[in-house]
Each structure stands twice: as C-alpha cells, then as structure tokens.
C-alpha cells in the first residue's frame, strides 16, 4: 500500500497525538543526539550573526538555541502544544509558537533562513512545507533541513529496524504513513526543492554518535521517545518486543568503547537557496 490523500488526516492525528505524549521522552532520549547536527546545519545554510531564523518543527528548540548561540535571532514553531511548552521552559528567552509546518503563520519574505531538524519525515505533505519555507524566505535565503540517514548495519536505525524485521510481527494497527527515509536520498531532495523554487541544492551526511552507558538505552529511546517507532514497538506482543530488545542489546554491546556504547546515527543535511 502507498500513502495517498485519504491517509493524510489519520496520519496527522497520529503524529499530533504522538508528539503531545512523547515530547518529554523525546527530549530525554533523543535530544543530545539530534542537537549534534544543529550547528552543522546552520553552517550549511550560511546562517550568520543577526539573521532572522525560523526553526520549523522545533521540538524542544535545539536548533533555535544553536542559532541564538551564534548571534542569530531564532523563532521556533511546532504543531505540538507540549513541545512548545517544553521549549519555552528550557529556553525562556527564545520565542516559540504553535503552528503547522505546512501552513506557516508568517508573511511572505519574513526570514533570512528557515531550518527544520528531523521534521520532514513526520509530514504528510512535505512538498507543502518546502513551498511554505520558500514563501516566508527573503530572496537569497536558505532552507536547510536534517533527516536521519538511511538505515545501515551497525548504526542506530539499522540495528533497531533489522531487529524488528527479524523478531516482530506485522503492525496492522499503524496508520498508513509516508516513507520515513525518503529525504535521505539526495535525488528526492533535489526534486522536491527544485519544484518549490530553490536552487544551489546540496546534501551532505553528518556523523553523529549516540553515547549510552546502558546497552538498553537505545531500545528505550525507540520504545518510549518517538512516535512511529514507538507505536511499532508498543503494538508488538510482549514476547516479540522482548526478542527485539535482546537483539538490539546484543548489537549495542558490540559498540562498547571505554566505559560507554558509542552508536553511530548519521544525519543527512540538505539545503536550497531561494533564487533572487
Ligand atoms: C523528531 S522531532 C524533532 C524535534 C527537533 N527539531 C529536533 O531536531 O530534535 C519532530 C518534531 O516535529 C513536530 N511536527 C510534526 N509534524 C509537524 C507539523 N505538521 N508542523 C509543525 N511541527 C510538526 C513534532 O511535534 C516534533 O516536535
């Protein structure tokens, strides 16, 4: 089955409900990982001191905070009230608003740059988000976004997804969803950004390392702190979930260095510029 128009509303409801519940757990489990590509993304977009930056799907505000650390002025936006509340609590001096990435509540040509960390893979119509980023950008402005790199053996997503494939049962209860790793493919990125009006498009891979002291921490992150992966794991029968946990733990143990487990979880970073 492929994702189609009739699947959009159920998918939005699933994501919205999921992020309202997972905001705190995502911050606890994933925040230190996803924040690693914030500065590289700002660099890719050429964001400098004084720039007005919109951080779409901001979550707890990591990229907005990184933008502020280099002297830019960020505004964070997220469709989850729980995420916005958390972001305001962590960074009280940054402005955070509730709003939809696919229908931005800003005038045309407002921002010098628009960024989105690990959000594209949660949108039912990512093309609309790219068009909206283009609309609110000033001429010459950059739209940069990160997604998780496609799953590979010995890396975070590859380890967990292959354990689910080997030990899980098919998840009949999950709503139809767009392909999760679509924008890890530079060809897909180029097609979408070109259609939205961007040029000078580039995609690079940024290495990120998840440092854990307990070999079950990565399984817990997927099991508690995400939306699609969490639903996938939570809908497994207990014995299947236990086998998945054991399989993930066994692979994580292979990645011990010193006292910690160092798990590679690369990100794919893309950028396009609004042609003046
Ligand atoms: C994986 S988290 C990423 C959070 C943060 N940007 C980061 O880099 O860690 C995905 C975020 O996208 C938000 N999100 C999902 N769909 C959205 C939409 N249509 N509009 C705005 N935010 C959305 C979720 O609420 C969640 O905060």
Structure characterization notes:
This protein has one domain (5-274): 3-Layer(aba) Sandwich (Rossmann fold). The chain has helices spanning 8-34, 38-44, 62-69, 81-90, 126-136, 156-167, 186-196, 217-224, 228-234, 238-253; strands at residues 52-56, 73-78, 95-98, 111-117, 137-148, 198-206, 209-212, 256-257, 260-264, 267-274. Helix 5 packs across helix 7 and helix 6 (156-167) runs antiparallel to helix 10. The mean pLDDT is 97. The strands form two sheets. Strands 3-2-1-4-5-10-6 form a seven-stranded mixed beta sheet, with helices on both faces. The radius of gyration is 18 Å and the shape is globular. The chain is an alpha/beta fold. The chain has ten helices and ten strands. Helix 3 (62-69) links the parallel strand 1 and strand 2. It binds S-adenosylmethionine. Residues 15, 19, 34, 57-59, 62-63, 78-80, 83, 100-102, 117-119, 122-123 line the site of S-adenosylmethionine.
């Amino acid at each position: 089955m492929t994702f189609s128009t009739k699947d959009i509303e159920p998918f939005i409801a699933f994501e919205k409900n999921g992020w309202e519940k997972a905001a705190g757990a995502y911050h606890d489990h994933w925040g230190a990982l996803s924040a690693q590509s914030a500065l590289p993304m700002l660099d890719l977009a050429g964001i400098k001191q004084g720039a007005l930056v919109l951080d779409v799907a901001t979550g707890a505000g990591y990229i907005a905070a990184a933008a502020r650390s280099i002297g830019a002025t960020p505004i964070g936006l997220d469709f989850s009230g729980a995420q916005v509340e958390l972001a305001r609590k962590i960074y009280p001096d940054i402005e955070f608003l509730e709003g939809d990435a696919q229908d931005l509540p800003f005038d045309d040509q407002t921002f010098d740059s628009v960024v989105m960390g690990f959000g594209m893979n949660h949108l039912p119509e990512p093309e609309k988000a790219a068009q909206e980023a283009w609309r609110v950008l000033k001429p010459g402005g950059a739209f940069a976004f990160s997604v998780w790199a496609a799953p590979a053996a010995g890396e975070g997503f590859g380890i967990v997804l292959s354990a689910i494939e080997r030990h899980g049962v098919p998840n009949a209860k999950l709503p139809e969803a767009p392909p999760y790793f679509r924008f890890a493919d530079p060809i897909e990125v180029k097609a979408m950004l070109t259609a939205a009006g961007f040029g000078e498009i580039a995609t690079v891979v940024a290495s990120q390392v998840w440092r854990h002291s307990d070999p079950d921490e990565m399984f817990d992150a997927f099991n508690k702190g995400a939306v699609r992966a969490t639903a996938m794991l939570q809908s497994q029968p207990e014995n299947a979930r236990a086998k998945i946990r054991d399989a993930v733990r066994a692979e994580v143990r292979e990645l011990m260095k010193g006292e910690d487990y160092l798990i590679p979880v690369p990100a794919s970073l893309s950028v396009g510029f609004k042609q003046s």
